[in-house]
Structure formats: structure tokens, C-alpha cells
Amino acid sequence: QVHLVETGGGSVQAGGSLRLSCTGSGTYTMAWFRQAPGKEREFVAAITWSEHSTYYGDSGQGRFTISRDNVSNTGYLQMDSLQPEDTAVYYCAAAPLRFRLSYRPTDYDYWGQGTQVTVSA
């Protein structure tokens, strides 16, 4: 059982930055997803446990950086140059290690409660 807790959401103006954190003990692949009102959940980025290899979806490529600190059991999503279209609830998720860098929500067994990110023009 992995209990994930996200923090760091909030409101920011376009062009600003936010850093999300996700804390949860265990050994797993970690990912960030987001869901805007009326839209499906969207893959943002994933990171492996040991090598810290990363993979980004279209929404995360170029402006977002995923990282993790296994000692503190914390993962991060640094978001820069935020735009209004980045407004969504952001979720961190954990998958078994065999799902390396998966972009499929169905591969992730554990989810955080979500944190709201709002970007104003």
C-alpha cells in the first residue's frame, strides 16, 4: 500500500512557476497526471525508481521537470512558463517497477488526492 500526498498547488499568473511535491513511501515508478474540467486525465511525466530516467508527455515536454529524492520519499514536478491551458488538478501516481515510464493511467495502482493549479492570463 502506497499513500501519496501532493502539495504545492496554487494560483499563478501566466509565465510563472510552481513546484509540486508528492510524498509517499515505497519503491515504485512515479508519474504526474493532470485533469482539466471536462477533459480526460492526461499524462504529464514519469520517472523511474533507481536510474531516475524520465519520460514526458506532450503537456510536460520542455517546460516541466520531474525529479525525485528516494531518501525522503518525495517526488517533484517543477513547472515553468505556466500558461492558462495548464490549469488543472494535478495528481501524482505510483506504479509497480515493471511499468517503467508508463503513460497509461491504468498501470498506476496508487493515486494522490490531487492538487489544484490555476494559471491566469
Topology:
Blueprint: E1 5-7, E2 10-13, E3 18-23, E4 29-35, E5 42-47, E6 54-56, E7 64-69, E8 74-79, E9 88-95, E10 110-111, E11 115-120
Parallel strand pairs: 2-11
Antiparallel strand pairs: 1-3, 3-8, 4-5, 4-9, 5-6, 7-8, 9-10, 9-11
Note down, in words, how this protein is organized.
- There is one protein chain.
- This protein has 121 residues and is mainly beta.
- It is 0% helix and 47% strand.
- It has no helices and eleven strands.
- The protein has strands at 5-7, 10-13, 18-23, 29-35, 42-47, 54-56, 64-69, 74-79, 88-95, 110-111, 115-120.
- The model has no long low-confidence stretch (mean pLDDT 95).
Short description:
By secondary structure, the protein is an all-beta fold.
E-strand count: 11
Amount of beta strand = over 45%
- What is the global morphology? globular
Roughly how many Å is the radius of gyration? 13 Å
Low-pLDDT runs = none
Main sheet overview = 7 strands, mixed
Residue share in helices? Answer: under 10%
List keywords for this structure.
11 strands; single chain; about 120 residues; four-stranded antiparallel beta sheet; mainly beta
